Structures are given as structure tokens and as C-alpha cells.
């Protein structure tokens, strides 16, 4: 939960400076010291919050232009997809994510980080499920993206460059996905740590470090698991040098696949190699660090869908085939580590302790200010109406609190709970 007495430092030095300035202006009040206030309505649909003396609460500015509507729409979509994931993943922690409370005797706080124009909740469970939860996956991947970018920036300062390697294997619509995953992992292990030929190859091309990301899509030939790997080399590489290196790596990859019980990979499609900055068309608009961490956001190519594309399809139509496909994917890959760093690389890049996925999703309130607190009945109304994402967007769009208060009022009304002087802590 949000700790009013400890403000965790994160982000850039510039942001830390702004945070420290805020701290010098005075502490944030304790949660239990917040005044009890009321939601008032004039009966015409307008609603506003006042303190015990009747004074309107909320800031006088509206920051709705700071973040794009596209960004706000993404938040709403993730929560909509999370609701669909709850229906599909029966018995999984994702069913409780941003739905049930950590402390069942307490309500839910709504916080706002004005430096990032981002709202969040306190006292709600977070599943930290990068494979099945669109909301937690976005939080985790954003953090991992920063870690990957830091590694790339650090290496470039050493005078090196980064190559993007993609490894895949043949697969078919009737391939056993769990067996394919097992055999692919074995081939990957041989390529990076196992056979003598791979060790010689690493020495030959002076590959000093690497970061790999495991990703999966689904198409006409079934599930398509593959690895994206950043290779850290101490030299710059022109396009003319890539074919020779690629052919050398392919020979090793083919041998690793065959020794792992896989079919022989096609030379054209089984291995791809691109120079870091020239990979823009493949990496799309985000840069290499996004290609490595944003698998949940990327939309699949023609005749190919990411797992969350499948979830989007189910969300739109509740097609049972999509539900079964998503479950098949999820239970085959849940618990698999998405991002792997070569030994020692993380310590070279940063002295900070590595965070688990759970620590990342729980550590999202940082310097956020507690704006108001929903009591238990209010939270039940918001979640029953599936408005968790919309409420966060309303707060980010309008810190005068008019939009979020109106949304809460509507949720209460739809649940038959609206009272003219409904009480909420602010």
C-alpha cells in the first residue's frame, strides 16, 4: 500500500529534483488525518465534492491535454481486457487483480502523480502476471524497457554497438505447444551456453553480453514461440558484414535445433540478424528496448495474432474458440521468464537490486499524492460497473475531481446505492 511517510526515489535526476522540491513544500497528510467529505448533487446530474465546511475540493486546473487521448484509451482497453482475462483464467491470481482489496477492512485510495499525469489505486491486489494480465504486463514491461535501455546506453558509452538477433523454429497447427516450448528452450540453451561451436562463435564475433526476450504469436501454423536477443559487441557493424555473421550463426542454430529434437530451421526464416539502429522497420516506432519488452502491446502482423490480440477478439465477441486458445497459451507459458540477461551484465549496468515482477507492480505509487479514498461500498460499485480503468483516466484528465466524482456517482446510481450526501474521504 501507499506509505505517506516514505517517498521512493525513481525516474530521472530531473524528475527527482522536482520531487524533492515538492517534499520541501510540506508533507502529505496521513490517510487517517484526511477530512471526511461529501459528494453533493443538485439533482440535475451535476456532482461535486466538498469538505465538512462545504468548501469545494480539488485543484483549479485541468491537465487533460498533458497526455494524449490515445494513451488514456490504452488504459481503458487494458482494464477491459483484464475483465475478459478474469472470465477465462478461472482460479488464477489474475481474477483478483485490481478487483479485490489487500486489506478487506479498508477502502481503496486513488492517488495521482502529477509529474507523470498518472492516477493509481492503493489497497488493491495486483497479480504481477506478465503472461495473462494486460494491466500488470504493461507496468512490468515499462520497467523492463527502462532496464534494457539503460543497458544499451551503457554499452554505447563503452564504444560498442548492439545487434538484434531473432531465433525461431518450424512449427505446425497440430504441434504440441508444451513440447515445442521445452525443445526450443533446450536449443536456446545450447546456442548460448552449450555446444563448443557456439562458444567459438561467441569468441569469433566478440559477443560480450546479451539480453534475450521470449515471445509468442499465433497464426495459420499454430503457436509461434521465438526469441529476440540483443547482442552486445565492441565494434560498429555495417550492413555489408551482416550476411557473413548471419550465415555463421545459422549453422550453429541449425545444429542446436537438430540436437534438441526440433525440425531443421529454414535458413531464411529460422534466424534473422539486424544491426541495432537499422532494425527500425522491424522494431517499429519504439526502438530496440521496446521490441524487447512490449510484446503485450504490439499488434500481430497479417494472419498472426499476439496473445493479447486473441484476448481482444474474445473481449469483442466472447468467442469460445478464442477463450480456449488463450487458455492453451497461458497455461503453456505462465511462469516462463520473459527476459534473460547474460551473467554479470545487470551488475555492470546498475548497482541497484533487481526487482521481481511483483515488486514492480506493487511499487507504482512512488511520489503520488492521495487525492481521495473510496469506501468499500463505493469500490464495489465501481468494480461491479467495470469502471476501474475509466476512473483512473477521469482523475488524470481532471484534477478538479468533477469527472471522477460524476463517474463514481453514476456507478452508485447504476447499483441503486446513490444517496444525496454519500460520504467519501478526500
UniProtKB/TrEMBL annotation:
Residues 1-10 have a biased composition (Polar residues). GO terms for molecular function: DNA binding. Transmembrane segments: none annotated. Keywords: DNA replication, Plasmid. InterPro entries: Rep (IPR000989). One of its GO terms (biological process) is DNA replication. It comes from the Bacteria. Residues 1-30 are annotated as: Disordered. Residues 11-27 have a biased composition (Basic and acidic residues). This is Replication protein.
Amino acid at each position: 500500500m501507499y506509505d505517506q511517510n516514505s517517498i521512493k526515489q525513481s525516474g530521472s535526476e530531473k524528475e527527482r529534483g522536482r520531487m524533492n522540491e515538492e517534499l520541501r513544500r510540506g508533507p502529505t497528510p496521513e490517510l487517517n488525518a484526511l477530512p471526511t467529505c461529501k459528494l453533493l448533487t443538485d439533482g440535475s446530474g451535476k456532482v461535486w465534492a466538498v469538505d465538512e465546511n462545504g468548501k469545494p475540493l480539488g485543484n483549479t486546473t485541468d491537465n487533460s491535454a498533458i497526455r494524449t487521448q490515445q494513451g488514456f484509451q490504452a488504459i481503458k482497453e487494458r482494464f477491459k481486457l483484464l475483465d475478459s482475462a478474469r472470465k477465462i483464467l478461472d482460479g488464477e491470481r489474475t481474477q483478483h487483480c485490481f478487483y479485490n482489496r489487500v486489506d478487506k477492512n479498508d477502502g481503496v485510495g486513488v492517488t495521482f502523480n502529477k509529474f507523470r499525469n498518472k492516477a493509481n489505486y492503493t489497497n488493491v491486489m495486483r497479480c504481477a502476471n506478465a503472461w495473462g494480465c494486460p494491466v500488470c504486463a504493461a507496468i512490468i514491461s515499462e520497467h523492463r524497457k527502462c532496464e534494457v535501455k539503460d543497458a544499451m546506453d551503457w554499452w554505447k558509452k563503452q564504444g560498442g554497438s548492439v545487434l538484434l538477433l531473432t531465433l525461431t523454429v518450424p512449427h505446425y497447427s497440430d504441434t504440441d505447444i508444451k513440447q515445442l516450448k521445452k525443445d526450443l528452450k533446450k536449443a536456446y540453451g545450447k546456442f548460448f551456453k552449450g555446444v563448443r561451436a557456439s562458444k567459438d562463435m561467441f569468441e569469433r564475433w566478440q559477443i560480450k553480453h546479451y539480453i534475450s526476450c521470449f515471445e509468442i504469436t499465433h497464426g495459420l501454423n499454430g503457436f509461434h514461440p521465438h526469441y529476440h536477443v540483443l547482442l552486445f559487441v565492441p565494434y560498429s557493424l555495417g550492413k555489408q558484414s551482416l550476411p557473413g555473421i548471419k550465415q555463421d550463426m545459422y549453422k550453429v542454430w541449425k545444429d542446436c535445433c537438430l540436437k534438441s529434437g526440433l525440425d531443421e530451421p529454414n535458413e531464411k526464416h529460422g534466424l534473422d540478424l539486424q544491426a541495432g539502429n537499422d532494425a527500425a522497420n522491424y522494431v517499429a516506432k519504439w526502438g530496440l528496448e521496446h521490441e524487447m519488452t512490449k510484446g503485450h502491446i504490439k499488434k500481430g502482423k497479417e494472419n498472426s495474432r499476439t496473445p493479447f490480440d486473441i484476448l481482444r477478439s474474445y473481449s469483442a465477441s466472447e468467442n469460445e474458440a478464442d477463450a480456449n486458445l488463450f487458455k492453451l497459451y497461458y497455461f503453456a507459458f505462465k511462469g516462463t521468464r520473459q527476459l534473460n540477461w547474460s551473467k554479470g551484465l545487470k551488475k555492470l549496468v546498475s548497482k541497484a537490486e533487481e526487482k521481481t515482477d511483483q515488486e514492480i507492480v506493487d511499487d507504482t505509487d512512488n511520489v503520488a499524492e492521495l487525492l481521495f479514498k473510496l469506501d468499500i461500498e463505493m469500490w464495489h460499485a465501481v468494480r461491479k460497473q467495470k469502471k476501474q480503468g475509466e476512473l483512473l483516466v477521469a482523475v488524470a484528465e481532471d484534477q478538479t475531481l468533477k469527472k471522477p466524482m460524476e463517474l463514481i456517482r453514476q456507478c452508485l446510481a447504476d447499483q441503486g446505492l446513490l444517496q444525496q450526501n454519500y460520504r467519501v474521504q478526500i
